[in-house]
Design brief:
Length: 172
């Protein structure tokens, strides 16, 4: 299963294992059941290998994350949490391990910066979505996260798309 993370990282640096010898000893594998919360600490980095997770803030959906996507936990205190919508597997690098990697191999910082760019693009999805007219939001969401539709309630989808549950009911 680590092949998916390996493929992801080789897109940025084919020789990342030369840059970070023993890379895999820094990685924790986390398996989640449907409905289970992802335990995390400030600064943790996750790669979703399989399944779908949702990010919530004060009970409202803020982001959906699927296979091949990243989760970078902010360094500041936050009220967000991630919940697994399906059985999921994620790979985790704890902040202290990431710092250790960069201390031993400073050129690994370049790889991390490239990963942060991908994460930033993923985070901008909802911003782009909410800029669309209401009649285009459901379509755009379905193009990118069709599988999520069957995993969440209409109310949750409505909250995420910033529209009424009635509008969602008529659209789907």
């Amino acid at each position: 299963m680590k092949a998916d993370l390996h493929s992801f990282l080789t897109k940025f640096d084919k020789n990342y294992l030369d840059v970070v010898p023993n890379f895999w000893k820094y990685i924790n594998t986390v398996s989640l059941f449907e409905g289970e919360h992802l335990s995390n600490s400030l600064g943790d980095v996750f790669f979703v290998s399989s399944g779908y997770l949702a990010k919530y803030c004060e009970g409202k959906p803020e982001r959906y994350v699927g296979s091949g996507e990243l989760i970078l936990v902010p360094l500041s205190t936050h009220m967000n949490y991630f919940k697994s919508l399906t059985s999921s597997r994620v790979y985790q690098i704890k902040r202290k391990k990431l710092y250790s990697i960069i201390k031993k191999s400073p050129e690994a910082l370049i790889l991390f910066e490239k990963i942060k760019e991908v994460h930033s693009h993923d985070l901008a999805f909802r911003y782009r979505l909410l800029k669309l007219p209401k009649n285009k939001r459901v379509e755009y969401f379905m193009e990118n996260y069709a599988m999520i539709i069957n995993l969440i309630s209409r109310k949750e989808l409505a909250d995420y798309l910033d529209m009424s549950a009635e509008y969602i009911r008529r659209s789907i």
